[in-house]
Amino acid sequence: MIKKIIYIFTVLLFSFQLSSAQSNAQAENILSNLLNTAKKEAIRTNFKLIASDKSNPQGMSSSGTFTLKGTKFVLDMSDMKAWFDGKTQWAYVSQSNEVSITEPSEKELSETNPMAILSGYKTKCIIRFSTKVKSAQNHCIEMIPKVKNKDIVKIDVEVNKITGNLYSIKLTNRNGSVSTLILSNFQKGIRVEDNIFVFNKAKYKGVVINDLR
User: Fold this and answer.
1) pLDDT tens column, 7-33
2) Residue ranges of the alpha helices (H) in the chain?
3) Rounded to two decimals, what is the model's pTM?
4) Whole-angstrom distance between the N-terminal and C-terminal Cα of the chain?
5) Using CA atoms, how far apart are residues 45 and 49, in angstroms rounded to an integer?
């Protein structure tokens, strides 16, 4: 009888492990498909960013549009705009009429490019379906960094089940701050010229240029 119980327990445990591995592989495949689409097609989407921390649990929000083509992107908000051509980034602040030029690191890019967050952390995380967050419309996936001393504790990602479009990314940091990016009007396969990813000085009269490269 004891041997039979052990046998059943072993079978159940093996079945659970196999199911979990398949589930994790499916979650990783969903992210891979999303990133492959972003590499092949130009994407434009509206976004809302909500940032909160312990001192401000209600958070602050901002919104704008985001255009992506491969590694290149344009981020357009009411008070600032950023361009990245794959190497150089220009960040323009309208209030001061200043633009800063940098060659950003992977970490810095992840602060402005949602796809850079996913691609940069994909190999550094355990990827699995969330057991806490559920949605009828979206796949709910969590990315847990394998190295525990990093700033980011967890990345929650939601991807539409039908279209495969990215719906949201939520970054939870070790210091308690949380950043949530919610996307809407997600458009794939749009036609854009490469020059839109480069700052055009002629369009900003009297602009102050800070070259920090």
Assistant:
1) 333 333 333 333 334 468 889 899 888
2) 2-40, 106-110, 114-121
3) 0.77
4) 72
5) 13
Nearest to 154 by CA among 108, 184, 117: 117
pLDDT (tens digit per residue) in 56-74 = 877 788 888 989 888 888 9
CA torsion angle 205 43 182 124 (round to 10): -110
Phi, psi of 132 (to 5 degrees): -105, -40
Signed CA dihedral, 121, 123, 126, 127: sign only = positive
Side-chain half-sphere exposure of 30, counting CA atoms within 13 A = 26
Spell out a b/e string for 15-44, using b for 16 or more CB atoms within 10 Å of the CB, else e.
Answer: eeeeeeeeeeeebbebbeebeebbeeebbb
Q: Which domains does the chain have, with CATH numbers?
A: 2-211 (2.50.20.10)
Residue 136, number of CB atoms within 10 A of its CB = 5
The span from the CA of 75 to the CA of 67, in Å, is 7
C-alpha to C-alpha distance for 213 and 120, rounded to whole angstroms: 22
SS3 31: helix
